[in-house]
Amino acid sequence: MDLLFICYLFSIGVISDSRIVSVRLETKQKHLNVFSRMKRGSAGLKSKCQTFPSPKQRAKRLKQMACSFAPSRGEDWGNLPHHVVLQIFQHLSLMDRARASSVCRRWNHVFHTPDLWRRFEFELNQPATSYLRSTHPDLIQQIIRKHAQHLQYVSFKVDSCTESAEAACDILSQLVNCTIKTLGLISTARPSFMDVPQAHFVSALTVVFVNSKSLSSIKIDDTPVDDPSLKVLVANNSDTLKLLKMSSCPHVSPAGILCVADQCHGLRELALNYHLLSDELLLALSTEKHVNLEHLRIDVVSENPSQTHFHSIKRSSWGALVRHSPKVNIVMYFFLYEDEFEPFFREETAVTHLYFGRAVSKEMLGRIGLNCPRLVELVVCANGLEPLDEELIRIAERCKSLTAIGLGECEVTCSGFVEFVKMCGGRLTQLSIMEEALIPDSTYNMEQIHSEVSKHLGRIWFPDMMPTW
Q1: Per-residue pLDDT tens digits for 322-356
Q2: Which terminus of the chain has a smaller tally of CB atoms within 10 A, N or C?
Q3: Are residues 127 and 237 located together in one domain of the fold?
Q4: The pTM is what?
């Protein structure tokens, strides 16, 4: 028990490594002495084993031990190097930082070091509706008053309550003396920012856009940002903006996002909804004065089944983008119903990553095999009851860059699946398929397909018992 308590003192920093070593040596010597007395049949040992200290005696003994192992002058934790304490503080929550700053003057000095506040996340949640811990309002005001000019990488994490999103807007509107480089607005659950009055949100966001002057990364998904606020962003940060994520922003029009593409020539990553995508936008991202785009994410979502009209993008527009940015990753997430896929993949499309969150038809997969030669990754969560052998083999033939595929509630014959793997060969770095999706046939059963697929992949492979994507 004594040694366990000493180890506890070590874990909370009361004693040092050298003190632990000496205690272990003393404990080992005690055990040797006890063993010697046991061999001699010592009566003293017998009597000692038959008595136990009372709770008061045990508490007194533990208190004496704690005092005896208090750090000496050479082990003053207040004298730790500045950079060590700073590194520790960076891993603490705001409340723990505040508590630690009251330990001594040196730690309080670290608490107010500008480097500590360059990166910060405000957590704004309502205790009655969220399990997440919220940042204390008084501490928030202290940060804004003393460290607003030091903030560079800032994010706001809010729950679904409107009050939390409004609190985030109030803080944004106070950041007038800052040079923020990265801004992220994160909703852990909808609707949050979408329930805030649009004028309030836009006004607060504009304060940051106007005063920062050096924004390089902005994540404002699921917010009521609009075209005029994007124009303010462009007017003040066009030379520095490199990443913009704004999926599910219903108040932004294609003209608004086109303004960003026309002026922000350093843009490398862009995420948006399909209704904002246009031939004009792709051509604007393909001009000579624009840097090479690295990542384009497009969310294709149907809010009203069978009532949403989806336009088509010309093959020439995709081609212009790829010629200008040959290594661009074009990622498309589909959350549509089967009858809404009609406009897609009728012509060659430069997409590299495809994810289908709902059922997709055999015809649609056939089009992908014909018109998506740059495809790298394909995930199909569900399909009908007809085997997809022909579609997979066509994809293997035409999509020479395919390296990852995931199949969920689909059906593929074991022979068709083996042929698909054989055609792709070792380039398949990720291969996930539900065991229930494989249909045994006259050539392969479930026991044989494991070894056959492993042979063509060049590594051990098993079908999945549950989805892994």
Answers
A1: 999 999 999 999 998 888 888 999 999 999 999 99
A2: N
A3: yes
A4: 0.77
